[in-house]
Structure formats: structure tokens, C-alpha cells
Amino acid sequence: MAGPDRVALKHGAGGRAMRALIEDVFLPLGGPVDGVGLSAMDDGAALRVGDQWLVVTTDSHVVQPIFFPGGDIGRISVCGTVNDLAMMGATEPLGLTCAVVIEEGFPREALERIRDSMKRACEEAGVTIVTGDTKVMGKGEVDGIVLNTAGFALARRIVRDDGLRPGDRIIVTGTVGDHGMAVMTRRRDLQIEGDLRSDVAPLNGLVRAALQAGGEAVVAMKDPTRGGLASVLHEFAQKAKVGVVLDGPSVPVTHEVQAAAEMLGIDPLVVANEGKAVLGVRPEAVDRVLAALRAHPQGRRAAVVGTAVAERPGNVILDTGLGRRLLAESDGEPLPRIC
């Protein structure tokens, strides 16, 4: 078990521990930029280029198992990067990079399967991989395969994750917990009735529809990956210095995810998603944005799940329908090697 002077798994799993590690160790790498830089701890950077913004993001991907119901590490690598761009308002990616670190002895058939999955995801997102790098490590020096992808896009307007003010509404674009529970049930070989599958998908088309409907009334966006919906809401609340009231019964959760969550003793609110977005929207535009989301195949179960309030700034209050309590942010996601 790692001590206080060592990095632990929780430091890469979302939540408080990961943010603290980034703030303590990596933020000093950042410096002043004309736009959004490292210190913002957003889904990417935004650099001024003429009258537009160049949005850049990068992500590394590890998951165990590599192949799971609904996806694989290749699909996550493409979708995760496209989605991080989209969360900044950049829904037309110009290109992606891909670096692959492969363990000696990794099956070539599996590598080609991952490649094909990445290609299909790129086609869905309307993007291509334009450059990359390959490294091979010795047996036991890396766990199978690690992918790093970076993406870049141009946008006229940047959407940050700190734009909430009291009265704004919170929308989630679909059911929560699907990805993390699909990976965990495969990892543990749990038998769950129904079709429990990861939601991993590129969200740029869905987000484009929301932005077209809501315009500047869409004031915050983030995808609830590591740490789940709970982590996103805490980031929204802390950065905007507002409270967030989460209406628990309104949060969409499938029967399969609920069953798996009860079996494992894990709250779906803290479980990773790879095909959902959380939006903060001014109240006058909520109906328009919700209608646009529900008209899109990926947003049919979109729901308004919360409200920003002036009370309890930096906190998330869960309204269960029977009472209210503070929703704690996990120190680190309880499901390691998820994305």
C-alpha cells in the first residue's frame, strides 16, 4: 500500500486525490497563455488564433479488460479525445494523434482488432488520425497496451466548466454508470440479467446539436468519466462558487446498472461514463436544449437533474425525494483501470 510520499492508484482514478496530485505536482508546469491553459484544469487548452480558438487536448488510456461489452481500449481512445474537445465547444475536430506503447508478446490479432475499432470510431466522429508513434516494451514492463491520443480543433466560442450561476439547470444527456459497470462486471465475471454495455461513443454531434439550440445559454460542459456525475458536479460547484442541488430520482439509470451497483455496493453517481455529457444551461434555454438532445439518437434519455443555487457554494446537495444530504466526492473512483 502506497504511503503519503508515494503515488497510489486513487491518484489516477478521478476525484479529490487526482486533482490534488495535479495541483501539487503538475500545475507548476503551466504558464500564462492567451486563452485557457493548464491552470484552468479544464478538458483541454484553448489558444487564440486570429478570431478563433485552437482547442487542444490529450489523454492516455488504460483499461482492464482491454475488450469489454460495447467497446475496447481503441474506441475509448478516440471517443475520449473527441469528447474532451467537444466539452470545450469544439465539435469539428481537425485531427488526432495516437501513440501506442505495446508489451512484448502482445497478440498481433488483438492489435489489429484495436486498430479497426479506432478506425470505426474515427468515422463516427468525422475525424482521422494524422500522426503517431509506436514503442514496444519488454515483457512485464507495461500491462499489455497503453494508448495516448491528442486532438485539436478550431472553435468560435469556448465553453468552460466554471460558468454556472444560481438558477442555472443541470442536464445529463443519458443514463449514468453504464461504462464503469460494464467493465467491472466483465472483469469480475458477474452474471447480470439484460444487456449491460459500455456507452462509449463520440459526442461531438450530440453536443453540436445542444449548442445550436442553446447558443451562449450553454455555460458549462463536462463529460463524467473518472469519478462519474458526482465528480463533475463538484467541479462545477467549486469552480463557479455555487451550490448544486441534485434531484436524485431524476438521474437516469438503467435497471442493469442499478442491479450491478447494488451487487457491488457502488453508487452509480461515482461510476465512469464514456458516452455522456453534463451541461449547465441558463433556465430560459433549458427546454430548447433538452428537446435538441432528445431528438438526437444519443440523447433520447437526456434529463434535467439539478439546479445551481447560491447556498452552500462548492457543495453538491443530493435530494433523494425523502430528504437532503451532502453528496460526498469520492477520494478516487472505486473502479481502477476503467478508461
UniProtKB/TrEMBL annotation:
Residue ranges constituting the PurM-like C-terminal domain according to the UniProt record: 165-317
InterPro entries per UniProt: HypE, PurM-like_C_dom, PurM-like_C_sf, PurM-like_N, PurM-like_N_sf
A GO biological-process term: protein maturation
Record CDD domains: HypE
Domain PurM-like N-terminal: 42-153
Family that this chain belongs to: Belongs to the HypE family.
Protein name per its UniProtKB record: Hydrogenase expression/formation protein HypE
Naturally occurring in which organism (per UniProt): Anaeromyxobacter diazotrophicus
Lineage: Bacteria, Pseudomonadati, Myxococcota, Myxococcia, Myxococcales
